[in-house]
Amino acid sequence: MRRWISAVIPSCGVCAIGVLLALAPALWPLFRPGLWAAHDMFHHLFRVVELDLVLRGGVLYARWLPDLGFFYGYPVLNFYAPLTYYLTVLWRWLGLGYGIALKVSYGLSFLGAAWGAYRWARDVWSPWAALWVAIAYTYVPYHLANAYVRGALAEHWAQALAPWLFWWVGRMARGQPRGGWAILGGLGALLVMTHNLSAMVFLPASGVYFLWWLGVSRDGARWSRVRHALAGFLLAVALSAIYWLPALSEVSWIRAGQVASQVVDHVRQLAAGSALLSPYWVYRYYPAQGVPFEHPLGRWQVIMVLLGVAVFFGQWRRWARAQRYWLAIAGVLLMASILLMSRLSAVVWSSVPFLAFLQFPWRLQGLVALMTAAWAAPLAELVHPRKSVADGRRFTVAMSGMLVFLGLWVGTSMPYLPRERLSWPGSEARPVEERDLVFWGMAQYDFLNGLWAREYGDPWLMEYLPVTVQVPREAFWLPASAQEVEDVVYTPPEVVRVVRQCPTAFELEVRATVSTFLRWHQFWFPGWRATVDGEEVTVTPSPRLGLVTFPVPAGEHRIRVWFGETAARRWGRWSTLVSLGVLALGLWRGGRRGVVAVLVGSALVWGALWTWQNARASTCVTPEPAWFVIGERVAYLGCATRRNVTPTPDRVVITPYWLALATVPEDWKSFVHLLDSEGNVLAQNDAYPVENFSPPTRWEVGEIVPDVHTVALPSPEARWERVRLGLYRFSGQVENLPWRGANGENAGTAGVVRCQTP
Asked: What does each C-alpha distance from 419 to 26, 35, 80, 235, 241 come to in angstroms?
């Protein structure tokens, strides 16, 4: 039995099982109830929610997320690499809740990182040693911190792709695997589309890795391999152009915080000497890390590297030539990354503006983590359960050594991981639940960012706010002061009807006696386009809030407005589409037909799911049309019931549509009452319009405001028939504003209407 186990331990299949078993402690936090209170968890959660809504509104590649930014919209995915969000939405479409879908994404990332580290090490080491490398990579503190402290979903996935990239460029440098350049291009593009800042670290490092192996090779095919590597790199650039080309060309239109005004800001974050090393034997995470540097090296991490170096040099003759070179380049990249995080590299950071894009020097810990793991290989070889050893004592020593190795990693890196659940701030700190992922929850998420901006003025907040917004970022969602409200002369259309509204597009029918204009409750950004009766017109930003503004000629017209493409987006799209064909051709000619089949199959599955979701759960609505003038300054255009984000039977989203006919000098509130068949009020919601964050003193003349109200029913079984809604002022007592019909007739102080359901 012992001989049999000793024989099969090095096999790939058993090591795969070993990788899965070793991952168990790292994955265990994913099985706790709810999501965990990581730094960026709210960001990723609601971006996934919003991406789902936009995709179900007929969009294939989403750049604009219309309900973020207090429902004014942000171009988040025009700048933030979107691939991990698409993957998470896929799990949502397969029937999981948003929270579970996020957990699955993190779990797959852990699995991909461990298996990638195994494959990378397996190129030059035994399966046993490669297993140890996978264990070490999994439990490097920064790798765990990205998931459970920072909640950096995209960067965590970049750490999963990195070992695969190093594995493949190493193979290309030592030979010419068929279709190698095509696979390299695909891996590079995946990395860029997953996390662009990590790509700025791993792509240059993998280039150094490639050149190292090329330099130590002894055959004469170097230039051929260089050509293949350059072809793969260019393919990666072309494949990912749909993302990076618009991001680079349009970044000046937002208040991007990812590029500091002065590189010296980053120099101040470099670690001074001992600050690079955690002062604790059991690693403690930010903000209790014990040193100014936010993510120091772990003590066991450093000890393992030093032990690996000692074994490496102490048994120099034992190692094969490839193993020596592999550890040598791992050591070079490790030391270079550590030096770049220390103050010794201040002159480099000051002289190379490119480094400023990384935001924080400790991002280099991603590369440090992988190169740290490499030094587990020589330690593993010390207790390798070799098949030639018949004595079972060697097997016992080997298994004991691996258990101790795993225990040291888990015991020194996991105990102080945060265990707090993701909760809404406040006195009760109620945990975030799946039923909170409605428009109300999205508004609360933005409110947290707004409060932080008002309290601390953090330049990283609201970085996607367009530069055309003239109101300060900490105030545009609050009531305007009396000095800010200016009476503007405006001639509104006689009738406006919202024909259809999708997340990033809408259609209107308008009748106007004179030429005028209208505005939509979305921030302007390059790409907003409009047609009047099929003829394209110019869309411009409004003076204060930079809202989407378009002309309305005299007469009756049908107007369509949508968020579309720019020249950079078109060029990027065509580059990606053509490059996909090149990728498929390169894989096919390289004998990688199975990979082509997987890619084509994945695209077909995605297309089928997208089509099905748009057919069964479209987020487009057709409002019930109407026209009433309220308080002589606002028109009521109609009402719709929006499809809720999470199907929650005890919450309903009612959206009245208002049109600002004139400046509103005081902050009116809107009310929505749900009535039963006998006219009794079942539930109600009274607030400033748009979930409390678009006070009428902020409205600009001609602005159409879809007023989102999340109304909580008394029970899931409650049934409502009609809606009573309106606007009121409060000056000591509630005063509902009068309604006037299209012909000027008195229509009371509230409207009892039907809201079109999706």
From this structure: 13, 10, 28, 42, 39
d(CA 134, CA 144): 14
The secondary structure of 26-77 as a DSSP string is HHGGGGSSS-B--TTHHHHHHHHHHHHHHHTTT-SS---BTTTTTTT-B-HH
Give, in order, the Cα–Cα distances in Å from 395 to each of 3, 154, 382: 9, 40, 12
Average of per-residue pLDDT across 17-38: 90
Q: What angle do CA 461, 692, 483 make, to 5 degrees?
A: 80
With residue 610 as reference, give the H or E element that holds it.
helix 593-616
Nearest 5°: phi and psi at 587?
-70, -40
Rg for the chain, CA atoms, rounded? 29
pLDDT at 9: 42
Strand-pair category, 555-563 with 505-512: antiparallel
pLDDT digits (tens, 9 = 90+) for 351-404: 887 787 788 899 999 999 999 999 999 999 888 776 544 456 777 777 888 889
Rounded-to-10 torsion of CA 239, 244, 246, 248:
-150
Q: What is the mean pLDDT of residues 62-68?
A: 95
pLDDT tens for each residue of 593-614: 888 998 999 999 999 999 999 9
pLDDT tens per residue across span 76-88: 999 999 999 999 9
pTM of the model: 0.93
Q: What are 494's two structure tokens?
A: 């006689």
C-alpha to C-alpha distance for 653 and 679, rounded to whole angstroms: 19
The DSSP H or E segment spanning 672 is: strand 669-675
DSSP character at residue 422? P
Residues 6+ apart with CB under 8 A from 358: 197, 200, 201, 266, 364
Mean pLDDT of 521-527: 97
* CATH fold of the domain at 624-753: Immunoglobulin-like (2.60.40)
Tell me, what amino acid is at 475? A
Distance CA 279, CA 277 (A): 6
Buried b (16+ CB within 10 A) or exposed e, 429-458: eeebbbebbbbbbbbbbbbebbeebeeeee
Residue 146: how many CB atoms within 10 A of its CB?
30
How far, CA to CA in Å, does 650 sit from each of 120, 156, 411, 671? 51, 36, 45, 18
Q: What is the pLDDT of residues 677-711, one digit of tens each?
A: 888 999 999 999 999 999 999 999 999 999 999 99
Q: Which residue has the higher pLDDT, 118 or 15?
A: 118
Per-residue pLDDT at 428: 66
- Each residue of 704-717: b (16+ CB within 10 Å) or e? bbbbbbbbebeeee
Q: What CA dihedral angle connects 196, 602, 41 and 503, to 10 degrees? A: 90
E runs forming strands in 445-524: 495-502, 505-512, 516-523
The SS3 assignment for 496 reads: strand
Contact 291, 275 (CB under 8 A): yes
For the chain, what are the domain ranges? Answer: 2-413, 495-563, 624-753
Q: How many helices (H) and strands (E) does the chain have?
A: 24, 19
Residue 462 pLDDT exceeds 90: no
633, pLDDT greater than 80 = yes
Residue count (the chain): 758
DSSP one-letter code for 432: P
Residue 333 near residue 365, CB atoms below 8 Å: no
Whole-number Cα distances in Å, 108 to 91, 116, 145, 232, 385: 12, 12, 16, 26, 30
- 742, 626 in Cβ contact below 8 A? no
Separation of alpha carbons 2 and 72, rounded Å:
67
Average pLDDT over residues 481-497: 87
Q: For residue 461, give both structure tokens.
A: 């907040």
Q: DSSP assignment of 133-170, as one string?
A: HHHHHHH-HHHHHHHHTS--HHHHHHHHHHHHHHHHHH
The 10 Å Cβ neighbour count of residue 514 is 11
